[in-house]
Specification:
372 residues, alpha/beta, Rossmann fold, Dihydrodipicolinate Reductase, domain 2, 2 domains, eight-stranded mixed beta sheet, six-stranded parallel beta sheet, 11 helices, globular
Length: 372
Amino acid sequence: MLKVAVVGMGGIGNIHASCHRNNPTAELVAVCDVIKAKADEAGEKHDCEVFYSLAEVLDAHPDIDIVDVTTGGNENGSWHYEPTMQALRAGKNVLVEKPISNDINQAREMVKLATEKNLYLGCNLNHTFTKPADEAKALSDEGKLGEPIYCLHRMGFPGGESTYPGPATNANFEGFRYAHVKAFLAHPFSIMRYFCGDIVKVQAFMGQPGFRRHANDPMVSINSIHVLFANGTVGYLFSQRGDATMGLGGWWSVEVGGSKGTFCIENCVEKLTFYPTPGAEGAAAPEKLKLGQSPAPVVTDTGETDFQLTFQNRIDAFLEDVDHAVPKDQLRASGRDALATLEYTWAAIESYEQDGIVIRPHPLPPEARRPE
């Protein structure tokens, strides 16, 4: 049984706590928040001990296996560093919410310390923990895509001019120009890297719709990012924060095309469509297709519409990896993976600030490969 403490009892923290309680390999022994009322309410809700600092948790429960860090902070990440480092220094495995940090140097330190301590550091990059993502990855691993050629990803809350509430007034986002970029791009970059590998070049153009400019909103909410992967695949990411309502694929879609086939996932958890290329196994012969016509696709509708399922799936995977003592370089959605998304985010910001020049992301640390 893995003993778990959750630190930071806002909405996400309570979701994580419930997920741990739902997993038979975990025992939620403590919840913690510096705001006493939040901690007390969570303790009553989840029927576990309550603490108001991580130091108190570690003193009372030296046998804890996992500290789950769900604090927020500026740009949803500035309060991740301190509890993560404190837990790692105490010899505890850590699962941290995304983004791993809002500061690239802090993120690098977190990953470095986890490696030095030979501990698990995972991140809640939960968008890959879905049935469509599993099936799409299987298609790729089985060679049904062939040589990867392109990756297109769109992600953004549905909205528009009539739903715009005005500049952000919560402390985490108010006045932070890159709050959306830092808090949001971890997910789409993790998806693109999951299917196509490391990104080696980034070019970004960003901006705002007129209604944000007229409201003197500082947030850069529209992100148009062109990337090149190490394997030669080209990619494009479009991200927005409720500035428009996207069409095909819904609020979340990714399409990866190769020399033998293409897949598209819609609304993250809902639908996978596979399009074999003309002449591929099971597809129509090219001469039987009219100009511009594609072979019949294979559609898998999962019947799921609840995005919240991804939290349970992701936390179950982390608990399974720790419980089975998988090699650190095989940890799913690791801290290193999360660092990669932040390196790409930093490269995108640098490109934007330099009028769209091409930026090479900072190299990732070598993967830890040591006898377990």
